[in-house]
Amino acid sequence: MIGQTKLKRTFGMPRTAILVGDEHMGKSTFLHEHCIDIVDVEHNVASIRELKCLPHVAYLFIGIDTWSVACYSALLKLLEDNDDSYLWLTCKSLQSVPESIVSRCKIFYMDKYSSDEIGNCYCNSPGQTQYFSDEMLATVNKFMTIYDKVSISNLFKLEQIISNYDINTFFTVLLNRLLETQCEDRVRLMLVTCKYLNKPSNKQLIRNWLIEVRGL
Fold first, then answer.
1. In the prediction, which pLDDT does 216 show?
2. How many C-beta neighbours within 10 Å does residue 52 have?
3. pLDDT in tens, 165-192
4. Which of 90, 123, 122 is nearest to 105 (CA)?
5. 3 state SS of 61
6. What residue spans define the domains of the chain?
7. Which of 33, 36, 58, 160 could serve as 86's disulfide partner, Cβ 3.0–4.6 Å?
8. Low-confidence residues of the chain, pLDDT below 50?
9. Taking a C-beta distance cutoff of 8 angstroms, is the pair 210, 204 a contact?
10. HSE-CB of 180 using CA atoms within 13 angstroms
11. HSE-up of 154 (CA within 13 Å, CB side)?
12. Which residues contact 173 (CB under 8 A, 6 or more apart)?
């Protein structure tokens, strides 16, 4: 995770928290790196209502500033009933998040990147930049050399590693690396990866992508 020295020092393990930061700043990446036992919750009313929170497990709700009223109502009930689990939310701005949600959470803000903290970046779209670590780039490069050779068991080990990253950033870096290389299979890899880009991140999505990439 690039920078975020102050946030790493102050975040701790709050029961309920909202992490606020611009798009592609790595909010979910920070939280995944901060806590190993963390579960991504799908952005839909049914998933939130049916969620059975386990003690001492962190649950991540991404992009709550774009949610519907029904999703907010379901989330509010979770916040009110929560005793032993950790409910962590992310958003770009608190402006559209209901006060009933905000008042029940501790608020944290991602630090703006300084020029000496930015190790690597790719242009994602005009006016936006994807930031990533050397570790992520190493994982992308390793993936490109072994994806068509690994066994099923090792494929799922790779899934665990990739799930620690912000998956859309990972996909963007992979697509850019494929453009830079002469990989024989790069067109197919790019087409498959583009199908999964900018979708809600979860382990099942990563698994489906890996299986399709592997050609199984």
1. 56
2. 5
3. 878 888 888 888 888 777 778 888 899 9
4. 90
5. strand
6. 5-109, 120-214
7. 58
8. 1, 114-118, 123, 125-128
9. no
10. 10
11. 9
12. 122, 130, 132, 136, 137, 140
